[in-house]
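We store sequence, tokenised fold; for instance:
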Amino acid sequence: MSNIIKILLLLVGAVLIALIVRTVVASISHPAAQAVSTVKIRVSAADLPQGLLLRDDDLAWKDVPAGNVPAAAIVANAPNAIELKGALLRHAAAAGTVLGPDDVILPSAPGFLAATLKPDMRAVSVAIDDVSGNAGLIQPGDYVDLLLTQQMDHRTDSPDLAVSSETVVERVRVLAVGSELSRPKTSDAPDANNRARTVTLEVTPHMAEVVSVAARLGSLSFALRSFAKASREADAASAVPASGPLQARPVWAGDISSAVRELPAPHAARAAQGAPVAVAPTPKSVVIYRGSERSDNLGGGS
């Protein structure tokens, strides 16, 4: 039995040695495959509609093998890579679609402003200052409301009605700030927006007339709308002049300031100063002689 056990042990040892040798030889003859080199290309981060002005959140990077890059793809850190932020999307794109130069219209392209307009819409420019333009924080692609503030003190004697403010246009898209048609790329760009003196809006033909008249009536300012509550792809029907039976009433000076409300009304002030009192006319007297008798009749009666 001892010889049989020795023989079995030798066989097992030989098998183990053979397996080890085979593994070593295989590893030498078949080196491990090298890691595949990848690059990042630009793709759409979500389903995007045609005519959208692209923002950071609309774009993403996707890793693909370096040898399998689509011909028109924009590769990260490539010397000739174009910037898609602020460009206009030519067609709808599903999430993950590779985006290239042929898929967009760049802000530097001729006719870019006209291309950004939806059908039957117009572009109208509004003068702004640092305050009315939200301190330069409004940028192309944002949605805003347009507020009209008027000084009424030269039209009314009532302190309550000395100043009014109202929304004249709601939910309109900003096309350009100054001459900038795209969002800033560097930290210096907000300073350029601060220096801008006009904002160009996308409006309907009627809204363009409303804005032109409002600019003559008083000062205009912008209220920036939240993207969380309004669709980025608001159609022409959603951008409307704030007029009609559902329009909110204007806000007057007396609605805001209790000091203005406590001022005396103009007619009360005049009464306190003392209005002229009407004086009754002196009755006329008539002297009547009847023979030697004389009588006085007041008021002209006989």
Summary: The chain is about 25% helix and 25% strand. Residues 126 and 215 are 8 Å apart (CA to CA). The mean pLDDT is 76.
